[in-house]
Task: inverse folding
């Protein structure tokens, strides 16, 4: 009797719960071989502007997530086969060696990932095997939507209203409980790499960080349970989500969602359980609202393909006035613009890999609308540095802020001083990340440029030496 043996290629779905590819593989095979490949093009390459494609914060989170996936598989009598290289080569070699029938995986839709799965598919055909694709990223199944992907509304509000009214969120696929059948072929498990393997230094945890992320499904499910049921902080999510200090002003689910350690459907149904037990309010709805945005950006990426990465965005309207100025970009990256709220946010992200949603909008607006820098350069930096980088959400949000994406407003622009007054009125966030401004009084913490020479002398502070002068005239916001 021939053994039906299949490979499950884990990608950005590093979990056992609600994993359609894994569920289907178990149901249609005798033996399942779970595999993860650290793609060297992703972990060691640089972006066009010279940033590491995967910075150390996200690299560490992924390493931890793979370690956790391996541990959870071992509890079920299985293991995770780990390789470092090109997935289309490494998976082909394994498939050829073990004589598998199929490779199951959750499909990705953006260009780099598509090229990899297409190349793998070609190689597998040469030995009589094929890929079986499943869905693992979205809250909603595309086949349930009231429109084909190519007709997805370009305006989020229209998309939301149509989907909310007509579509139900399917229940998550169950977590496997039964032990995996032992393999009847020998296969080296391989070693999980370290940060050093990819040329990164160890991470020094910063005590000022809003949250210390631990990679993996286990940590993600624990955070979900804590935020909803233990602390019940979900009750005030809408009111606190734009804050910038502390671990609980927002859910912090984003990094686990980005790597697929948490399923959006699992979050949604946990949210519904919470509402059944404790009631619903604007905050519980708003978390669902954010999951909808995530689906919307992914559908925009499917609909417009590589346009989301181009200067003209999904609108295909190029702003020729935007500059490719690496000097100004470098000052923005290093948090040396002389605008305290911008610099504090940029220092936070450089030292932790994370920044609040409000902060991301402000620094992006400043780069594009005030410094007039090509938004793609900012998007690349975020791709590199963010611990929670998600390709569709990152590039979709930058399209949105730059005015070349799905936004009905003609010119979305943030007055940074007004935002500072609203979200950091006492300058606590600025002083947390810019200790050189610690002596500056609260009344001028967001406007150090208004300190007189006498005041600077009394404070033992020199603008231009201890802290840079503003790159732009801040009076325009006053």
Result:
């Amino acid at each position: 009797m021939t053994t039906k043996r299949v490979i499950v290629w884990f990608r950005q779905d590093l979990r056992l719960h609600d994993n359609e590819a894994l569920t289907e593989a178990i149901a249609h095979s005798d033996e399942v071989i779970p595999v993860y490949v650290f793609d060297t093009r992703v972990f060691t390459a640089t972006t066009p502007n010279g940033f590491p494609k995967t910075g150390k914060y996200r690299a560490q989170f992924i390493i931890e997530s793979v370690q956790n996936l391996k541990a959870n598989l071992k509890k079920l009598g299985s293991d995770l086969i780990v390789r470092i290289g090109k997935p289309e080569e490494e998976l082909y070699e394994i498939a050829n060696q073990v004589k598998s029938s199929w490779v199951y995986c959750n499909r990705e839709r953006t260009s780099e990932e598509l090229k990899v799965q297409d190349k793998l598919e070609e190689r597998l055909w040469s030995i009589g095997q094929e890929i079986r694709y499943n869905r693992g990223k979205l809250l909603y199944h595309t086949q349930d939507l009231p429109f084909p992907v190519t007709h997805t509304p370009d305006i989020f509000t229209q998309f939301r209203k149509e989907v909310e009214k007509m579509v139900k969120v399917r229940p998550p696929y169950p977590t496997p409980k039964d032990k995996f059948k032992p393999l009847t072929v020998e296969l080296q498990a391989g070693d999980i790499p370290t940060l050093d393997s990819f040329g990164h230094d160890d991470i020094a945890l910063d005590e000022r960080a809003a949250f210390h992320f631990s990679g993996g499904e286990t940590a993600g499910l624990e955070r979900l349970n804590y935020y909803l049921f233990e602390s019940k902080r979900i009750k005030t999510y809408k009111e606190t989500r734009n804050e910038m200090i502390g671990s609980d002003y927002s859910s912090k689910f984003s990094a686990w969602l980005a790597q697929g350690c948490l399923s959006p459907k699992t979050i949604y149904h946990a949210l519904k359980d919470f509402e059944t037990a404790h009631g619903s309010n604007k905050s519980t709805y708003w978390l669902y609202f954010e999951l909808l945005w995530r689906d919307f950006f992914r559908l925009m990426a499917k609909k417009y393909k590589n346009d989301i990465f181009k200067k003209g965005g999904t609108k295909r309207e190029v702003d020729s006035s935007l500059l490719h100025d690496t000097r100004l970009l470098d000052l923005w990256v290093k948090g040396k613009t002389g605008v305290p709220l911008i610099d504090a946010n940029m220092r936070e992200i450089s030292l932790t890999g994370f920044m609040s949603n409000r902060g991301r909008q402000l620094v992006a607006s400043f780069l594009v609308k005030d410094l007039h820098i090509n938004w793609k350069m900012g998007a690349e930096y975020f791709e590199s540095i963010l611990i929670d980088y998600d390709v569709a959400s990152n590039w979709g949000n930058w399209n949105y802020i730059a005015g070349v994406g799905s936004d009905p407003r003609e010119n979305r622009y943030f007055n940074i001083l007004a935002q500072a007054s609203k979200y950091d009125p006492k300058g606590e966030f600025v002083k947390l990340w810019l200790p050189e401004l610690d002596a500056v009084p609260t009344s001028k913490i967001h406007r150090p440029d208004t300190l007189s020479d006498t005041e600077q002398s009394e404070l033992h502070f020199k603008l231009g030496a201890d802290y840079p002068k503003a790159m732009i005239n801040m009076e325009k916001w006053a």
User: Anything to note?
Assistant: The longest strand covers residues 31-39. The chain has a mean pLDDT of 96. The chain has 19 helices and five strands.
